[in-house]
Amino acid sequence: MSEDPFLKINPLKAIACLETIIPESSVVLIRRELHSHCQKLIRLASAHLRFANAATGQLSWRQRVSRSYYACYTASKAIRLIHSGTYNTDVGDHKNGGELPTSFPNSSSWKDFFTKFRADRNIADYDHLGNESMLEMKSSEYVVKSTQFLALAKSYINERAA
Amino acid sequence: MMTRKSMDDEANEIVERFAHECQISKPKYKIVDKAGEKFLAIEVGHINNVFAIALEVASGGLEEDSNFYGRTFLREVKLPSVLESPEVELLERLISESLTVGRSSLESDYHRKMIPFLGGEERQIFGTANHVVFGRRGAGKSSLVLYACNQAKKEAIPYVWIAFQQYNGRDDLSVIPQVLYEFVEGIERYSEGFEARIKRLRKIVSELEDLDLKITKQAINFAIPKITREVVPIVNHFGKLFLCFDDLHLLSPSLQPYFLSVFYSFSRGNNISLKITAIENFCKLYDDTLREGLEPPGDAQIIRLDYNLVDPKAAYDHISNVLSGYVSYVGLKSTASLVVPNVMQRLAWTSAGVPRDALYIFQRALTKARAAGRKKVTVTDVNMSAAESLTEKERYASDDATSDENLIRDVISDIKRFCLQEKKCNAFLVFIDVEDPIYNAIQKVSDLRFLHVLHPGITPEKAGQRYEALLLDYAFYTGFRKAQSIKEFKTELEPTLAKELRELDTYRYKDRTIGPS
Fold it and tell me: Whole-number mean pLDDT of chain B?
């Protein structure tokens, strides 16, 4: 995975440390770059969701769950990046998908959603004996919920960028 | 060496913590396998934010090496009866909590919900004017003022809430330094940097309080400018202050005007807004002879929260909106999922549009339906619960009507006799004569929710002679079902026609012997 060095530091912490030294225009540039990363993450999330929506066949339940999960997980990364400046590419970060800021609408309910979504995505991607009835909700319902989450994520990021 | 807890023990502990957080009984749970990983699934009918927050708390303290770290979730399951669900249990708890509204409600779940008021009164109450909120017990007066306090809290505006329960029936001037003392205690929360002023305020008030029953109006009037001098800089620091008096009518009406004069004299022009709740017919805001008190609308604006049954559909809508707020808060799909058809209509009539009565009746009806093993609340459950609400109303009647309790009881008995034995109808007309003490007592009976207004003034006989149309509370003639011998004025929600009202019998109180026989 290509890693932008900008994401290796925490841009918000950098601003907090440097804003009394660097000119205001530099702070604006850092914020703009941060927002640009978030927008690109949202674009990637949308691409995952498009794939999930396109997988309409009855046998494509695994793709619907897997792609919509990645749409939500990527959107969660964008939310966490704009809120606290953190960005993590470790595989262990999947457990943090639901760690949304409390300012995010109904953050606790979404956290609960993420926990079961991660569990069911594992069934979809890795359990060769798995079937759709083992999921907590139907694959199509996961796609609908993911669409709702993405819409909330977009407005949350835009509000903060403004 | 620490031994790792068994999976079952740990699951059980988490679910117990979850139940404790929500204050419900322990829900069912399962340990489920998801592609080789074990997860704890707690079963609920519908997921809501209250449950999600409780789960976050219940599993928040888990160590990374625990069995369910990051692996607990809520599972929606179809329960055999919605009334048996954890959400309904949560709903009952929330309703029960909100039946008593007071200062402490700001710290509870209650204030998170927005109780809708029909006329958008919440927009008025947060204004800087002085407000007196009139309404019957349970109409939502305290909730409305609490809404203003909640808004104040959000905007860092100080507020002081004084409940009058402990001053019930008092007519002595010593009440004033005692309330002033509560006021000083209240503003002390905002006194950082003003400690010396608070100390001086305490001294002024203590000196007044030490006079005990020898206290005079002169002594109080003399202290007021000194109090104002200390309070105003604190208020100016914050920009404004809300001073709330809850249930002012509990104070003896003979003291109320002077009491209000005292507080108005130091609030006026000093950015202190008075927010007062009271039952109208037990309240005397202004004394014309002594020229004391608050004279509306100049000194204070009146907000009336009386839904009554003048417009049954409006009462129904209001009750439905209040209940829907609670129902959606706990994650249930709709009130309709809990009740059979006609229950809400019955609830509107039996509660006469009074939100707290509706909540009380509904909560009891839920319990009854579940105890009877029903899947939904029925009209019978509402009827029986309405009958039980009488005890609740009677309990408060003597609090609210200290001075004329006996007359009020006699009037109630006579009206019951007239409706249930003589005319066998639950509605009647009464001649409006504001000078007549019996008519005034009837008004108070209505304020105590034993009677409900169907129409405030019609002229069925001679022009200029106005009559009020009233309905006797359902609790007097309803048990398992409504007494069959009593003719119900109306059961539907359409507007009442003048023709229907004119056909009602008149309760001629001037010709009756009211009192112990």
Answer: 88
CA B204 to chain centre: 35
Chain B residues lying within 8 Å of A120, measured CB to CB: 34
DSSP string covering A48-107:
HHHHHHH--SGGGHHHHHHHHHHHHHHHHHHHHHHHH-----SGGGGGGTT---TTSTTH
B108 contacts B69 by C-beta, under 8 angstroms = no
CA distance B372 to B467: 44
Q: In B2-30, which positions are buried (b, 16+ CB within 10 angstroms) versus exposed (e)?
A: eeeeeeeebbeebbebbbebbebeebebe
- Cα–Cα distances (Å) from B11 to B23, B38, B62, in that order, read 18, 11, 11
Cα-Cα-Cα-Cα torsion B49, B50, B52, B55, nearest 10 degrees, comes to 170
Structure token pair of residue A130 = 């798995």
The residue among A77, A149, A45, A94 whose CA lies nearest residue B35 is A94
Whether this model's ipTM surpasses 0.95 comes out as no
Asked whether B449 and B357 are in contact (CB, 8 A), the reply is yes
Q: Hey, of B14, B73, B78, B112, which one would you mutate to test binding to chain A, going by the most A CBs within 10 A of its CB?
A: B73
In 3D space, the residue among B366, B398, B371, B394 whose CA is nearest the CA of residue B382 turns out to be B366
Its sign, for the CA torsion B308, B313, B317, B323, is: positive
Inter-residue contact B52 to A109 (CB < 8 Å): yes
Phi, then psi, of B132 in degrees rounded to 5: -115, 120
- Residues B322, B164, B255, B200: is their CA dihedral positive or negative? negative
Task: Say whether A112 and B75 touch across the interface (CB within 8 A).
Answer: no
The nearest CA of chain A is from the CA of B241 a distance in Å of 29
pLDDT of B387-445, one tens digit each? 888 887 887 777 776 667 888 889 999 999 999 999 999 999 999 998 999 999 999 89
Note which residues in 81-140 of chain A have CB less than 8 A from chain B. 95, 106, 108-109, 111-112, 115-116, 119-120, 122-123, 126-127, 130, 134, 136-137
pLDDT > 50? residue B1:
no
